[in-house]
From TrEMBL:
Single GO biological process annotation from the record: methylation
Catalytic activity: a 4-O-methyl-thymidine in DNA + L-cysteinyl-[protein] = a thymidine in DNA + S-methyl-L-cysteinyl-[protein]; a 6-O-methyl-2'-deoxyguanosine in DNA + L-cysteinyl-[protein] = S-methyl-L-cysteinyl-[protein] + a 2'-deoxyguanosine in DNA
Record-annotated Methylated-DNA-[protein]-cysteine S-methyltransferase DNA binding domain positions: 5-87
InterPro entries the UniProt entry points to: ATL_DNA_repair, MethylDNA_cys_MeTrfase_AS, MethylDNA_cys_MeTrfase_DNA-bd, MethylDNA_cys_MeTrfase_DNAb, WH-like_DNA-bd_sf
PROSITE patterns named among the record's database cross-references: MGMT
Molecular function terms from GO: methylated-DNA-[protein]-cysteine S-methyltransferase activity
Name the record gives this protein: Methylated-DNA-protein-cysteine methyltransferase related protein
Signal is among the record's keywords: no
Keyword match DNA damage: yes
Length: 105
């Protein structure tokens, strides 16, 4: 995967507003690469993170589940960051996608 793909993914993720989430597949589709959700995951893993202007904690799986080995401090860190932004979770521990999924214009 080239750096151009990663930068394009970062540019889409930078648009996700606080309090909203998007899926890996959604990001890939918005990039015109609908079959490359896994590569979006690779990009998020390699991202400079929030300090680098990429809120990759706002990217989740389609079912609202979180990355099991979130890179910013363990599995609970992503949830804590999202909760701090007001993202709602279901009793099963997944993001409430009905309420919090970002719908780009």
């Amino acid at each position: 995967m080239d750096e151009g793909f990663f930068e394009r993914a970062y540019n889409v993720v930078r648009q996700i507003p606080c309090g909203r989430v998007a899926t890996y597949g959604q990001i890939a589709a918005m990039m015109g690469e609908p079959r490359k959700a896994r590569y979006v995951g690779f990009a998020m893993h390699a991202s400079p993170g929030v300090a680098g202007g990429v809120p990759c904690h706002r990217v989740v799986f389609a079912d609202g589940s979180l990355a099991p080995g979130f890179a910013f401090g363990g599995p609970g860190a992503q949830r804590a960051m999202l909760e701090d932004e007001g993202v709602a979770f279901t009793p099963s521990g997944r993001v409430d996608m009905r309420r919090c999924r970002w719908e780009a214009l």
